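Query protein
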Amino acid sequence: MNFSKIKTILLASGVTIMACSMILFPEESFEASLRGLNMWWKIVFPSLFPFFVISELLIGFGVVKFMGVLLEPFMRPLFRVPGVGGFAWAMGMATGFPAGAKLSARLRQEKQLSKSEAERLVSFTNSSSPLFIFGAVSVGFFLNPRLGILLAIAHYLGNFLVGICMRFYGEKENVRYKQYRSPWRIISQALSALHQTRLKNKKPIGKLLGDAVVSSVQTLLMIGGFIILFSVLNKLLYQLNITLVLASLTEFVLSAFHLPKELGVPIIAGVFEITLGSQMASKVNEATLMQQAIITSFILGFSGFSVQAQVASILAETDIKFKPFFLARILHGFLAAVITFLLWKPFSEKFHIVSGNNAIPVMLQEHDLWWENTLKIFVLVGPLITILSLILYIYLFYKKVDSANM
């Protein structure tokens, strides 16, 4: 029996087991589905939708090309990607998964990136958003906003190191970029690129805005589907004790790093879905706060199969390979965990990151309150933004269909 037939049997068996499990555990499946839906329409959609729309407009109006010329002397020597990659990198850090993949794929479709450059770029432009790290993980799960500072530094520094490592991936392109000594010369070239890009785009502003809304909502609907699917899958694996079996396989690795075996279940849960994994890691009483932070950093870096499935779906529309992204996520997970371990002592002393310590320094009180209030605003206003955006999408979609049929 060849590998193709074995793969077919495994996939068919897996889907069948999942379907039977949903019948056996209907209540648990429904609760997990609601949990994924609440996260999507309260947090994910309202936080990503504006950035997705603005990104499409910035690409259409040539602003990304303008930034690309300015950032070329920085991005090309450091990461071996064009300057436009700097825009995807910044937006990926600001908005979180999977904005970096969407922008990398979009730039590849615009032929502003080669295949190898796009594969390098997508490997380090996907990261958790500050809102998720500070608001959901540090405030919501650990009840320790100061921990978010360390988690964020480890996460983004790890992502930067991944970009440095991935610069050696792929064949070396014979690309020569112009180096101008005069800053005014660089700005002049950037403005020229901005103007030429706008002239090439023949779409009216209204058409461009409508297409940006439709494209963004379609991507976010796909993201929502994956979030709900993997939320249910994770719950079913736990109900079938598969998570516990897989967690037992991690005991040797955990013991090698002097980590409690109770962290095995959060790791396996986080491998599938980062939110549940991070939440479970924060509740392991047998582990110290440092050990919980190390595991959480790994989970945030690896991103989980849920996010990776979202990225794979986006990359499937292009010729960008998924394998480099997957390997980069493994590397990111380990790098973030190591950085958290190395920085724990100085940061815990500087920012008073101690489990059970409720005394917050005055300089950090406004910082803590800001992230907590931001998360509350998204929970309250997020559903309204999602509903209004979906109504606008339906209107624009049917208007687009009608104009195509005329």
Q: What stands out?
A: The chain has one domain: 26-405.
